[in-house]
Model the fold of this input.
Amino acid sequence: MALTANSSIGDWLADPTGGELIRGLLAQSGASADSLAPVLGLPLQQLVVMSQGAMPQSVVDDLVRAANGGEIPEDTAATGWTEQVTPGRFSGKTVIVTGAASGIGKATASRITREGGRVVACDIAAEKLDALAAEFPGIVTVAGDLTQQDAIDRVITAAGDRIDGLANVAGINDDFSPAGETPDAVWDRVIAINLTAPFKLMRAVLPLMEAAGRGSILNVSSEAGLRGNASGNAYTASKHGIIGVTKSAAFMYGPKGIRVNSVAPGGVATGIPMPPHMSEYGSGRLAPFQQAIPTVATAEHLAASITFLLSDDAVNINGAILASDGGWSVQ
Done:
């Protein structure tokens, strides 16, 4: 079988020609094939996303040509897991999705739309939102900084009188600093985006859901919400905090027909850049634990978990914290 961009990284390494090409590429940056252990099940194409701009598409194209005598063969379906859309699962429902211009948020907005839902997509990246709307004309977009009340007000106005779901996906990482090093600017920004903005959006949609007697809220936490050795001080605090917000709201509003749950991702190949100045001590302290990540997921993997909990398929689930981390949290 020909090796293509959709062939898994594991298949490339197992192939005599493909393996030599991949190992040669890694050697140029001083890396070894062992570094790819968590991503063996992902398609080769995913390396472009994971590189955060360091690897252009041309590199993957050149690898495919080199493995196939100078030609790019007709691509095959990706190996391993493939997304299975459930037609009509969100029909008649309006769902707000934050962080919708890229990564997990985009994958979530896309899936809800393809499953019949009306999506109000929010992000600070206006141009990327425009691209999303061009790809999915039914999506309503709201560009703005959700740490500001006026942006939240515009989101609620765009959604209208009925809001069936809210997916709080937007988030940023910190600089891996421990508490003794964390700058005010890092703490304030991470807490504002990862914790305060989701809370304020919840506060805005809950009265409408309460009046309707139904609703579903999904807050994205993280592996860092389950343990202390997955990220820095500010990010860890924000993701522990969103779990607390989730559990409190699930308890308070469950009797009113509103479900509030959380997904805690582990390693995800979204290509979201890290801050420019990382803590040297924090990065070194975290490195051995981050290297133990058993597998890296795609944004679509996480969207599958998120849309399940948002949908009526999760009718009997409230206050759950779903670790969607490939088993990292059980190590």
